[in-house]
Amino acid sequence: MKRKLLFAIGLLCTMGLASVNAQELGVRFGDATGGDFAVDAVFSLGKFERVHADVSFGDDVVGIDALWDFLYKPLGAESFNWYVGAGPFIGLGDDFWLGAVGEIGLEYHFKGVPLALGADWRPSFLVIDNTDFSANGFGINLRYVFGGGKGN
Questions:
Q1: Region 120-137: what's the mean pLDDT?
Q2: Radius of gyration of the chain (CA)
Q3: What average pLDDT score do residues 23-30 get?
Q4: What residues contact 111, with CB distance under 8 A and at least 6 apart?
Q5: Are 54 and 31 in contact (CB under 8 A)?
Q6: pLDDT tens for residues 59-104?
Q7: pLDDT in the model for residue 31
Q8: What pLDDT, on a 0 to 100 scale, did the predictor assign at position 98?
Q9: Distance from C-alpha of 15 to C-alpha of 22, rounded to nearest angstrom
Q10: Would you report the helix, strand and coil content of the chain in percent, each value rounded to 5?
Q11: Which of 16, 46, 42 is nearest to 116 (CA)?
Q12: DSSP assignment string, 94-113
């Protein structure tokens, strides 16, 4: 357990350094891989692609999600978007979890304020430690937008 905790702390430090390059960084509240709270980051890969990563904390578990949002399009107004994506997740704790998670969500980027507010649903399919499917992954995201708020 101590090795897993040290690994999780090292990973968090690495994500902290990587978040300097993140376009959005904030929190996610709701059902996530490891618990009910996550550090949430978005890294843009282009106009319609991005990586949406989370590190979540819960009952002796640290969860890590790395989702590739492959559809990310404006919905009507330019500041209102929807996205769909998928990717792997791992859970580090008393047991080791490995699986795949999907997501579909909506988000709003406030004009003149560097904030993004979103809601998403993340069904997950657990492969290791056992096989299971969960459709409970609803969450709310609040992120700071680096370089945002200048009329976006």
A1: 89
A2: 15
A3: 93
A4: 79, 149, 151, 152
A5: no
A6: 788 999 999 998 777 777 778 889 999 999 999 888 888 999 999 9
A7: 78
A8: 95
A9: 10
A10: 15, 65, 25
A11: 42
A12: SSEEEEEEEEEEEEEEPTTS
Residue with tokens 């995201």: 141
Locus of tokens 């999780």: 8
Sign of the dihedral defined by the CA atoms of residues 51, 12, 37, 118, in that order:
negative
**Which residues does 10 contact at the CB level (< 8 Å), separation at least 6?**
none
Closest of 81, 54, 51, 50 to residue 65, by C-alpha:
54
**112 with 151: CB under 8 angstroms?**
yes
Residue 27, both tokens: 């929190």
Report the predicted TM-score, pTM, of the whole model to 2 decimal places.
0.77
CA distance 104 to 87: 12
Please identify which residue in the block is written with the tokens 């059902």: 31
Q: Looking at the predicted structure, is the pLDDT value of residue 138 above 90?
A: yes
